[in-house]
Amino acid sequence: MTTGERRPLLQSQDSGHYASTPKVDVPVIDTDKLSYNKVGLSVNRFLNAFDGTVVATLLGPISSSFNATNMASWLGTSYEYSLYHASLTSTAIGNFLCAIAPNMEFLIAARALAGMGGGGLSTVGSTIMSDIVPITHRGIYQGFGNLAFGGGMG
């Protein structure tokens, strides 16, 4: 069977005529399980955005407490640079190391580690959302995730 350039690729199941849109069975969604996942992924997006912006507002006080205001720009940059070069290191470990940082250099390295974890959280969260939500409902759930991200940025 050969296909021409003007002939549609998909054919309707109910008749021998070609249809412009195929008939698709929409899967039934288990809303109880999906709502738990939606809440978890929204919290993930909120914390990812919050972690990236909370330090930006506190760069001055943090760097002055270490008497290293000349290194303040590295504190935000290390997190954001690592965020885009994500690996699945733990954000919790990076944030714990930030909490016990004895000096500015250690804090910058810990923020880089936390940024790698934050990038991993963002990537894994998007992948999970794409896997568990059918494409017909994905826009709604991504909208909820974007609202959570906006709340974290605010």
Automatic annotation (TrEMBL):
Q: Name one GO molecular function term.
A: basic amino acid transmembrane transporter activity
Q: Which residues form the Major facilitator superfamily (MFS) profile domain?
A: 1-154
Pfam families for the chain: MFS_1
> How does this protein sit in the membrane?
Multi-pass membrane protein
Q: What InterPro entries does the entry give?
A: MFS (IPR011701), MFS_dom (IPR020846), MFS_trans_sf (IPR036259)
Where in the cell? Endomembrane system
Q: Where is it predominantly found?
A: membrane
GO cellular component terms, A-Z: endomembrane system; fungal-type vacuole membrane; plasma membrane
Its keywords, alphabetically, are: Membrane, Transmembrane, Transmembrane helix, Transport
What protein does this entry describe? Major facilitator superfamily (MFS) profile domain-containing protein
Query: What organism is recorded for this protein?
Result: Kwoniella dejecticola CBS 10117
